[in-house]
Structures are given as structure tokens and as C-alpha cells.
Amino acid sequence: MRVPLPRRLGALVVALSFALPLSAQEGGTRIPDEAIGTAVALRDSAMAGTGAFGIVESLTTEIGPRMAGTEADARAVAWAEERFRALGYDRVRLEPVTFPVWHRGHERAEVVAPFPQPLLITALGGSVGTGGEAIEAEVVRFGSLDELKAADPASVRGRIAFIDQKMERFRDGRGYGRVVGARSQGANEASRHGARAVLIRSIGTDSARMPHTGMMRYADDVTPIPAAALSIPDADQLARILERGQPVRVRLDIDAETRGEYTSHNVIGEIVGSERPDEIVFIGGHLDSWDLGTGAIDDGAGIAITMEAGRLIAALPERPKRTVRVIAFANEEQGLIGAYAYAREHGGDIARQIIGAESDFGAGRIYALRAGVKPEAREAIARIGEVLAPIGIAYEAEGGSPGPDVGPMVQRGMAWAQLAQDGTDYFDYHHTANDTLDKIEPAALDQQVAAYAVFAYLAAEAEGDFGSAPRTGGD
Amino acid sequence: MRVPLPRRLGALVVALSFALPLSAQEGGTRIPDEAIGTAVALRDSAMAGTGAFGIVESLTTEIGPRMAGTEADARAVAWAEERFRALGYDRVRLEPVTFPVWHRGHERAEVVAPFPQPLLITALGGSVGTGGEAIEAEVVRFGSLDELKAADPASVRGRIAFIDQKMERFRDGRGYGRVVGARSQGANEASRHGARAVLIRSIGTDSARMPHTGMMRYADDVTPIPAAALSIPDADQLARILERGQPVRVRLDIDAETRGEYTSHNVIGEIVGSERPDEIVFIGGHLDSWDLGTGAIDDGAGIAITMEAGRLIAALPERPKRTVRVIAFANEEQGLIGAYAYAREHGGDIARQIIGAESDFGAGRIYALRAGVKPEAREAIARIGEVLAPIGIAYEAEGGSPGPDVGPMVQRGMAWAQLAQDGTDYFDYHHTANDTLDKIEPAALDQQVAAYAVFAYLAAEAEGDFGSAPRTGGD
């Protein structure tokens, strides 16, 4: 999971949700009663135990880290293709996704004066390096990106800008969007102010000595400068050293660059609909991970949950009416590259892309069902919610947002659902070396498989649609 | 904190504790009533807040990691000397401690086949490197050091031995002694079996991606081979990869060596006794740390607790009868080098070394007072326990062991006390990069300052001794 919902998309979500009253509409979308029984059986079967943990165990063990553009990216694609086939999907295919390749080499930082000691950092995705030699400069601290923006450039010029803003912990992860600008935009603002490099406090909620990586991107108008994240204890340490009031000099030695292009693939498994095979309900996650951990919660869990949900549907005696498509997206982390490729390929026929949901917020249990659908379909979503209520999932008629890889399709007008996960500890591990299999509770995965299986099956059985239609006009 | 109590010393502890009935003895050691009032005031003052957190904040921020023999070792010694003076100690002095210097360079490991991916390791203290180039070999796993010992050398020869024994979590840390042999002796056993290197599962209780370092030592009869610890998630990962049944090849590239000698110092601060200045009650911690973290819980906390306890005693209107000595030991981590130097210097006059206690088990609250004293002094220890009871510390007449740096003096016959800390989470952070200031709760330090101040003050005021006497004969 990479980025918060862009502001434009947020406005669209609200528009879709509230354009009309939320009460049941005449002639609205309906979930047939006979489908409910099957959905309940899917749910109960999943809650009794699924193969999801085994899938994420296989992905994280046999592939491990799988950063976009690495040799492990190709191994992950082959793994996903083979896995879909082994799980009994009707059709499996690859769709190409091409992007520039970011390489991480070494990354070292140390306080040179007044108190020499190492600092643990990791380069941000997309960052340049320090040019083959170390940069040594005085550090100037800012409590937020806004403070840096407002700073006198004379106080920043020639220095290393240090953005030290704390992220707050919430179940829904909303603390992330409030501070992630330091990561995505910190280098741009620092460069505009004449800094030689930018260090940020990791965007995370833990107190482990684990820097959090994540994507940044240089604006066209700036000179690229190196950008790296300090672990949270290291950010605290640097702040304490600065508090002493003496000039603090830091040396950075980062080897990183973007070079060449790579073609990976969205890997797609389908359970072909019995009556309307060209109408698609999609669920999925992203196959790539950052390089530091093994991508267990981000997003091996999402891949495992949705692959296994599809398998349960594929194992039913009859195919659902619509096609259920499970998508393992390529290169989410570096800018939803796979999702945009998917939208270019499939967004032209948006009315047949009935609804989509992505699992990309870790491995915590689902507590809410939300959706961005037409008012006439609210009742159908509420009906899905009734099936999910016994496993701790509440239907919420307002709010929510689609998963990141669903976004580009939503921008084109597709309806979406959100099975909101408990992300209380998600940002303890997110984008760190600590994103490993042991952070996943198998029973929590089973609950999520149950939710995705019920959602995808009932959406595929629904009479009537959820409001997917080409967007016209502004937002 | 480095090593469990040697077996010989354990036997001695039992001998001291149980040689005679534990009941009060005629003519036993007494705590004067008038001293109790002062001790209660010391306790209550400390519980209301102390400067201990500020001391460990200063040490970990201004010095940071301070591995024995590094330039930071010298800065730490200067820091301690200056700090003792600033805190109002009567006398401050340095005593030289000389040892060979172990250097850590880089350390890298990766699975080469069948599933290429990095593994996070750290070299064990004392280890040799891989000789300027990487070692690549097949891995063979053992569930314990004993399994390796029992293995057919043909199954180990030319391979990398992987010792994968789990450590259990206990309040008193007793899980450590059960498995630490893999660290201290793993390379010896592996080398005897013809292995090219040894990898151990970190001796720790966490699930963070943080390898735990710690000391090992080559036996005279073995060819030194590189020894490193995998983080616990990495050990799990390697075990999972091995479970697939294919040959697993790992590449190790470690730069480490022991070269040269260094002279550091035990730093000693004293509050000189008013009546019997040549009788010593000592408390202390160790000043060195491993290089990975900033040595906050191991053992900045112990330094801060005991320095601050001494300061509270120094701030009393009158000096206690005996001298209270606070010792910041040099190089505990690499083999109690400072403690042995201290024992050589002061162990000849053991009867005047009245009693000693070290704080070196993290920063968790103290829950028990135990002691290795003569039977006639049990009543006095129990009386000290009564003063500590209101702050959650129970006197336990049996069991316990002295802190590691107290050990060499106890071997010579010195009485000891143990203020047993809650070490439930100690081995989550022990010897890792994660041993940083944020792991310390300031109020817990205050409670420990209270305990050490009360103990040291009352031991210095006691009428009669605790049984320190030269050891004669075997154990």
C-alpha cells in the first residue's frame, strides 16, 4: 500500500456515495435469496480454515522480497501464474506492465559531529544517490513539511534538511495521509530551498530501529537530491543531538539510481461467469513488494486472501453468473503502475467492470464494509453486509475509499467496495525489513478470505449493477 | 549483560546461602534503626523522580554506541569521569583495563539457491571474517547445539552449520542460559565437525528483523570459522526454505577480526565513608555496549541507576559510615574484562569488600531482593527488604545470583546482593540495534534508583559484615 487517495478521487467518492438519498430505490440492484445460502456456506467454510496462510507462506518463502524490476519480480509473476492454475481458476493470463527500474545499492549515514555515531537509514524509492561519494553537511530540522516550505532558504541552503514529523496510530491508518507528504514531497521542497539532501523521520508508528522506505518522485522543476528515511529511534536521536544546540554534521553515502526499463505483468486469474462472462467483478492485491522485507503484509496477504477467495468460488458446484477476476497487480509500490496499465486496457468498457475491491492494508481482520456505488445498489451492499455481520464486519453506508490499485478504474467511473481492515499495527511494519510472515495471524486471514469470497460471489450473482459508468465532466 | 553464571559460581552461591540455617543468628549483622529513617527518605525521594533518565539520555545521545576498544570507548570513559564529578562524588578515578580489540566490518548473507534472497545477520563478537571473499556452501540445520554435537561429521563437513534453537521468554531471563551455548560454543562444535561457518538463530525473544550479537570465543583446539547470528524471522525463513527439501546454498561475506590491544578504564566514583572509609559497598553497571544499538538497556540503564543512587547518598547531610563505590566497568561484553581487572586490583583484600551488586539486566522494575551472604547477615538483608517492600520488591531468602561484573569478586569470596529486575522484554532488544533510549520507562528507572540507594546506604551503615572472606579450598 503506497499512497493515500488523491484529493480528486476523494471528491468523487463522496459524489458517488451521496448524490442521492441512501434509502432503497425502486427497481434497485438485488441480491437473489438463493445466492445468500451459497454465500453463507462460503463464509462458514472459510472461517473453518483456508489455504490463505499457505499461499502467503509460499510467496514470501519461495520468492521473498520482489521489488518491481528485480529478478524476483519475474519469479513472482511465474509463481502467481502457476498458483492460479493450481488453484483451479478457469483462465490465467499475463498483461504487460512497463516501467523504469529503480535500483538500491548501499546506504549509510553517520553523525560526524558533535557526537560521532551511525544512523540507520534507507533510501526512498526513486531517490538518486550521493553521486559516488559521501555528502557531508550540517543538518537543519523541521517539525513538518509545512515548516520546511515556510523556511527561509538561507537557513537550508547547502544543508541536509531533516523533516521530523510524527505519525499517529489509528485503526484506519488515517495518520498516514497526514504525514506522507514528507516522504513524497520532502525532496522537492528541500531542493527548492537549496538543500543538498533530505532525511525524513520514517512514516511509521513503531519504535523499532527499522527505517521505512516508500516512493518519492522529483518534480520537473527541481534538482534531484538524495532522499532517505531515518528509523524512528534514529530520528529521535538526531533530534536530541540537535537539541544540544551545537552544529550537527551528518555524512550520507547512498548508492541509488533509476536506470533502464522493465516489463513485468499483471497476473490475472478468472472464474468465468455462467451467464454474463463478460461482466467482471474484481478483487485482488499487488504482487510486488519493497525490497527490505519479504512483503508478507504488503501485500502478500492481499494476494493470498483474494486468490484463496477465488479458489473457494471456483470450487463451488456452479460458476457464478458473472466472471470473478482476481488480479495480482504489478508494481503498485512505485506508483500504481500495474493499476494504470490495467485501467488503460480495461477502462474503456467501464460499464462491464461491475465493481472492484483490493486487499492492500495488511493482514488485520476486516471490521467494516463500505462501498462507492449508485444509490439504487446500496440495498444490495447492505444485504452483503448482513452475511458478513456474524464475522465482525459492519456495513457502513458512508465513507471509505477503494484500495490503491482500484483507484485508476474508479477514476474512470467504476463502482468499488472496501473491506476495511484493522490497520492498528500496519504502519509498525509497513515498508520495513520487518514485513515478514511472522506478523500474520492465520485465523485473521481466514476471516478476510470469508469476506472477499462472500463479497465477490454475491456481487457476481447480483441482479442489476452497482453504477459503473464512464465518468463525464469534472469532479 | 553477557553470560549466565558459570556453573562453578552457581555452586558457590548455593554454598553461601545454605551452609547454615537461614534464621536469625545471635550476634548477627544489624541495620541500625536510625539508618532506616534515612533510607526511607532516600527511597521516597527517588520514587518522586530522579535524574537517572537524564544520565542515560546523555550517555546514549552524546556517546551513543561504545563498543570496547572503539574511539567511543574513550569518550565514554571521559563522560563517566566528568559525570561522577558533576554529581558530587568525593573521589573519582580510572583503573586501566587492557584487552585485544575486535573489529566489525561488513556482514552480508544471502540464500543463493533455491530461492535467492538476502538474510539479515550480524557477526558474533570475536568472530573471524570470511577471509576477504565470500563463502558459499550448503546449509545443514540443527535444532540445538546438542544436535550438532551428536551429528555425524560427514553431514557437516564443508557446510554451513545452522543452529536453530528457540529461546523462551521468562521474567528472570532464565531462557538465556539454556540456549546461549549455541552462541558461545557453536563455532567450536561446528569447526570440530568440519563446518566452514556457523549461523545461529539469534539468542533473543523478539520477532523483529534484528540480529542479536554477543560474544563467542574459539577453543584452542579448533580452526576458527566465521560465526554470525540470523535475526529470528530470518532463522524462521531459512528453516522454512530448508523444509522444502532441496539443497540450500548460502553465501556469507563477513569482515571481522581481532587485532591490536587497547587500554580502557574502569571508572570509579566514591562517596567516602565517615567511619570506615576503607570498607567498600559497591554498586555499578558496565560502561561499554555492543556497537549495534546505543546501549540504553545494556547497560546505560545500570550506569544511570547506580550513578544516580550514589548521587542521592552523596547529597545526604552526612556521609554513610562505609564508603559507597559506584563502578562503571569497562568491557563487560567481551568477557568481563573490566571486572576481572577490578578483582585483580581489589580482590586481595576481600574482607573489606563488604558486599556488591550490579545493575545489568535492562531497565525493567525490580521485583526481588536476593543475596549471597553469611547466615548471620540474613536478618540484615531482610531488614533492607522491609524498606523496599512498599515499592514492589520482595525479599527472597533463597536463590538469585550476582550481576556478571560482580562474579569475579564473588569467586574470591565477596558477599553479593541481587536487585532482580523484570526482564520479560529484555531479550527482545538485548545486543541488537534496537537497544535504544525509547525502550526505557523513566519511572521504572526511578524505582531502581530507590532500590540501589536504599541497599547501598543501609549496607554502608550496617553493624557487622555480610560474610566477605577469602575463599579457601574448592567449590
UniProtKB/TrEMBL annotation, chains A, B:
Write out the entry's keywords from A to Z.
Answer: Carboxypeptidase, Endoplasmic reticulum, Glycoprotein, Golgi apparatus, Hydrolase, Lysosome, Metal-binding, Metalloprotease, Protease, Secreted, Signal, Zinc, Zymogen
Any Pfam family matching the protein: Peptidase_M28
Subcellular localization, as worded in the UniProt entry:
Endoplasmic reticulum; Golgi apparatus; Lysosome; Secreted
Q: Does the keyword Endoplasmic reticulum apply?
A: yes
Q: Per its UniProt record, what InterPro entries does this chain match?
A: CPQ, Peptidase_M28
Annotated Peptidase M28 domain ranges read 266-449
- Span of the signal peptide: 1-24
The residue stretches assigned to a coiled coil in this entry are: none
Q: What is its main location?
A: endoplasmic reticulum
Instruction: Describe the subunit structure.
Output: Homodimer. The monomeric form is inactive while the homodimer is active.
Question: What is the protein's given name?
Answer: Carboxypeptidase Q
Q: Which species does this protein come from?
A: Coralloluteibacterium thermophilum
Q: In the record, what lineage is assigned to the organism producing the protein?
A: Bacteria, Pseudomonadati, Pseudomonadota, Gammaproteobacteria, Lysobacterales
